[in-house]
């Protein structure tokens, strides 16, 4: 018998009525809901502060929706999973674990990274990326120029190195907002990317 998480409030703060959203955010919410079949709770939780939601989404898109030789979209999601696990953020681990499963085409890897990225079956480059990212997430003053050089030695460009730090920093914000507002992960995230899509 499987118990689904019981629906409850998605934030400790107000949630804007969908009918009252500014047109650009209403359009973005509709696109996301059409693509995924549901609206992730973080969108609804941020919607009462439209200027901040716009800025949040713009930063997310700039950092996460690109593939580079040094950091694929799937690897970017694994940074989120590992650092969010270090920050005890259930929302981001579950939501970005789902996206990581889809983007890496691996139904197991995100779970292994969330539990202990050190033992996850990753190559040396991605282990180094996660080592530096988790250090920045948990002990930022301990990150040294040598850590950045380790990333460069694995072929990351200056932009990629910056992105490791920027993704970690941006999701530290996201983790803390999710904790502060008590945003729960949508139940739909738990099953995404675990089984091949039916054709």
UniProtKB/TrEMBL annotation:
<dbReference type="InterPro" id="IPR029032">
    <property type="entry name" value="AhpD-like"/>
</dbReference>
<dbReference type="Pfam" id="PF02627">
    <property type="entry name" value="CMD"/>
</dbReference>
<feature type="domain" description="Carboxymuconolactone decarboxylase-like">
    <location>
        <begin position="53"/>
        <end position="101"/>
    </location>
</feature>
<dbReference type="GO" id="GO:0051920">
    <property type="term" value="F:peroxiredoxin activity"/>
</dbReference>
<dbReference type="InterPro" id="IPR010195">
    <property type="entry name" value="Uncharacterised_peroxidase-rel"/>
</dbReference>
<keyword id="KW-0575">Peroxidase</keyword>
<dbReference type="InterPro" id="IPR004675">
    <property type="entry name" value="AhpD_core"/>
</dbReference>
<dbReference type="InterPro" id="IPR003779">
    <property type="entry name" value="CMD-like"/>
</dbReference>
<keyword id="KW-0560">Oxidoreductase</keyword>
<protein>
    <submittedName>
        <fullName>Uncharacterized peroxidase-related enzyme</fullName>
    </submittedName>
</protein>
């Amino acid at each position: 018998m499987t118990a689904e998480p019981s629906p409850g409030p998605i934030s400790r703060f107000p949630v804007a009525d969908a009918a009252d959203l500014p047109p650009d955010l209403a359009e973005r919410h509709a696109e996301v809901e059409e693509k995924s079949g549901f609206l992730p709770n973080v969108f609804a939780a941020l919607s009462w502060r439209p200027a901040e939601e716009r800025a949040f989404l713009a930063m997310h898109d700039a950092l996460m929706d690109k593939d580079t030789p040094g950091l694929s979209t799937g690897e970017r999601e694994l940074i989120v999973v590992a650092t969010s696990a270090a920050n005890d953020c259930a929302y981001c681990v579950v939501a970005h674990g789902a996206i990581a499963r889809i983007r890496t085409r691996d139904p197991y890897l995100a779970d292994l990274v969330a539990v202990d990225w050190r033992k996850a079956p990753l190559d040396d480059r991605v282990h180094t990326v996660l080592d530096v990212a988790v250090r920045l997430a948990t002990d930022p003053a301990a990150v040294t120029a040598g850590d950045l050089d380790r990333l460069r030695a694995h072929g990351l460009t200056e932009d990629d190195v910056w992105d490791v730090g920027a993704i970690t920093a941006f999701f530290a914000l996201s983790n803390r907002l999710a904790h502060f507002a008590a945003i729960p992960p949508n139940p739909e995230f738990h099953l995404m990317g675990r089984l091949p899509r039916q054709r």
